[in-house]
Specification:
Helix 4 crosses helix 8. The chain starts with a helix and ends with a helix. The chain contains eight helices and nine strands. The radius of gyration is 17 Å and the shape is globular. The chain has a five-stranded mixed barrel. By secondary structure, the protein is α/β, with parallel strands linked by helices. The protein has one domain: Rossmann fold. Helices cover about 30% and strands about 25% of the residues. The mean pLDDT is about 95. Helix 4 links the parallel strand 6 and strand 7. The structure holds hypoxanthine. The site of hypoxanthine (HPA) has 13 residues, from strand 5, strand 8 and strand 9.
Length: about 280
């Protein structure tokens, strides 16, 4: 058995000593969404620090805990704060919380993030449904001994983002009158923002938005057979497209400004997904 799988099993055991809630949906909260969990029925919380051998978030504005509870009647586990590759963790550590939520029974992974727009038809405050991704300059989380208990050595990635889940999110947005863009998310390592030349190159490659998370998490979830969906909040125009300099504060500010609509869309989407699972 791989060392990573043993580490995951230890965390499963610890969490099971705290709660027997079996989540249907695993939700990862991106920048500006941290307080989403305040609006749900919470059953229990587990700080990442309580788990042995587990990565802990070091980014301002990112708490680090799992919240177990219900969005209306849909059982969920929520990651309030994620860990990023730029924090110095290996990619296989970055995806540990995702794999853990899958092992706890979540059938669906709902990823959210803030991103910079490369596509000039997008603007800050827009929401984008992830249709596909490009992982660039960040190694695959599946490198190393394959964890056979989770999935196969060479997994297919031709539909990482489930068309079925995407349709639920599309329908939820339409029913609420919330506009929704669709496109390809490109994950870079960060922590620096990109240069204008990099952004031009990523645009040619087919990316609509750029960010520092998400794609590696989607790969790990797809490997273990979870259905994946993703929603991005456009917090800024990417470098060189906007004339202003980029800051983490700008990202947080825009994400917080549109958070009320983003949260309503997440809830409505989870309800539709919950019924379908
Ligand atoms: N680049 C990378 N990551 C980001 C950005 C960006 O412009 N905005 C929010 N996350």
């Amino acid at each position: 058995m791989s060392t990573m799988y043993k580490r995951l099993q230890k965390s499963v055991k610890f969490i099971r000593s705290k709660t027997d809630l079996k989540p249907k949906v695993a939700l990862v909260l991106g920048s500006g969404l941290g307080d989403y969990a305040d609006g749900i029925t919470i059953e229990s919380t587990v700080n990442y620090q309580e788990l042995e051998d587990f990565p802990v978030s070091t980014v301002p504005g990112h708490k680090g805990r799992f919240i177990f509870g219900y969005v209306h009647d849909v059982p969920v586990v929520i990651m309030q704060g994620r860990v990023h590759y730029y924090e110095g963790y290996s990619v296989s550590e970055v995806v540990m919380p995702i794999r853990l939520m899958g092992l706890l029974g979540a059938k669906c992974l709902f990823l959210t993030n803030a991103s910079g727009a490369i596509n000039r038809d997008f603007k800050p405050g827009d929401f984008m449904l992830l249709r596909d991704h490009i992982l660039l300059g960040v190694p695959s989380p599946l490198i190393g001994l394959n964890i056979d208990e989770l999935g196969v050595r060479f997994p297919d990635m031709s539909e990482v983002y489930s068309g079925e889940l995407a349709e639920h999110i599309r329908n939820a947005a339409a029913a609420m009158g919330i506009g929704l863009k669709e496109g390809t998310y490109l994950q870079v390592s960060g922590p620096n923002f990109e240069t204008p030349a990099e952004i031009r190159a990523y645009g040619v490659m087919g990316a609509d938005v750029v960010g520092m998370s998400t794609a590696c998490e989607a790969v790990a979830a797809n490997h273990m057979g979870m259905k994946v969906c993703g929603l991005s909040c456009i917090s800024n125009m990417a470098a060189g497209i906007s004339t202003s300099k980029l800051t983490h504060e700008e990202v947080q500010e825009t994400a917080s400004r549109v958070a009320p609509d983003f949260k309503r869309l997440i809830t409505a989407s989870i309800l539709r997904i919950g019924i379908s699972l």
